[in-house]
Amino acid sequence: MDDFRKIIYGTLIAFLATIVVWVGFLTISGCGFTVSCLGAQPKVERTSIPTLIPDTLPAPARFVQAPPVAQTQSVSTGGIARPSNPGGVGQAVNLNGNADLGRQIFAANCAACHAAEGKGGNPNPGSDDGTIPALNPIDSTLINADYKIYATNLDLFIEHGSTPAGPSPTFQMPAWGDKSALQPQQIADVIAYLISLNPAPVSTSSVPTAAGMQQMTGAGPNVEDMRPSNPGGPGTAITLTGNVDAGQQIFAANCAACHAAEGKGGVANPGSADGTVPALNPIHTALVDMDYKTFATNLDLFIEHGSTPKGVNPTFQMPAWGDKGALQPQQIADVIAYIISLNK
User: Fold this and answer.
1) What domains are there in the chain, each with its CATH number?
2) Of the four, 59, 98, 148, 228, which is 20 to 30 A from 218 by CA?
3) Given a cut of 70, is residue 161 above it in pLDDT?
C-alpha cells in the first residue's frame, strides 16, 4: 500500500513540476497564454478601407472640373487671368464663325460654368471674387470695335485657358484649343456667339465726311448712277449670321447720319438726281427678295463696294464699307440683318 502511494505521489509531483516549468517558459518568452503560442493560426487577410482625399472627391454636378494649367504664370485682368505666354492665337480667328452654331456649342460645353447665355454667377471658391466670370456682359477690356482684335482677345482664352486670380481657385478655364477639345471652326463659332452677346460700340467718328465718302468710293463729279461695274462679288458677310440688335447699334452709329434714323430717309443730298439720300425703310423694291440670302447679297454688294447716286455732282456717295475695312464682315452681316428686319 505504501508503495502504491509513493507511485501516485511521485507521478503527481512530476506532473506539477512539468506545469511549473512550462509556465516559467511562457513567462520568460513573453508569449503568455495565447493561441498563437500554443498552435499555428490561419492567415487572415485585412480588408482595405479606402480613404477619400480632396483631390479624389467628385466635383459638384453642375460644374465641369477644369484641368489645372500646369506651370503657368497668370496675370490678373479684372478678376480673370490670361497665361503670361499663351503661345499666340489659333486658326479660329481666320475663320468665319456662325453665332447660331456657337450658341449650341456654348450651351453644351461652356454654360456649365459660365451659366446659360454667359450670364455668370456660378461660385468659384478660392478665386478673388468667388465666382466664375460672366461673359454676358463680358469684361470690357476684351471688347474692341475691330472684329479681329475682339476675336483674338477671346481666342487666347479659349485656346490656352486661364487661371482665375485668387489664392486657390476651384475651377479654371480649360485650354479647349490646346487640348483639342474644340476644333478651330467650333472655337470660331463660339467667338461669333460671344461677340453677338456683346456687340462692340462703334464710334460715330467713323462716319465719313462728304469729302471722305467721295474719296472712299473713288467717284468724281458728273458720274452716272451705278454700282461699280466689277464690284468683286459679295463679301463673307453673307455667310455669317447677323444680329439684328447689334446691327441696329452699328446702323445708328454709321448709317443714320445719311439714311436717317431707322433708315427712314429724307436727308438732303445736293447734286443728286432726286436731291436726297435713298431711304432704306422702305428700301427700293428691286433689292427685296423673299429668299433671305438673295436679299442679303443685294444689300451686301452696296455695303461692301459702295455706289454713286445719279446726278451731276452728288454731295454724298455710298462708301465702300467693306472694301475699305471700315466695317468688319460680322458688322456688315449685323447691319444687313437689321435692314432686312425693317423691310419684312
Assistant:
1) 60-197 (1.10.760.10), 204-342 (1.10.760.10)
2) 148
3) yes
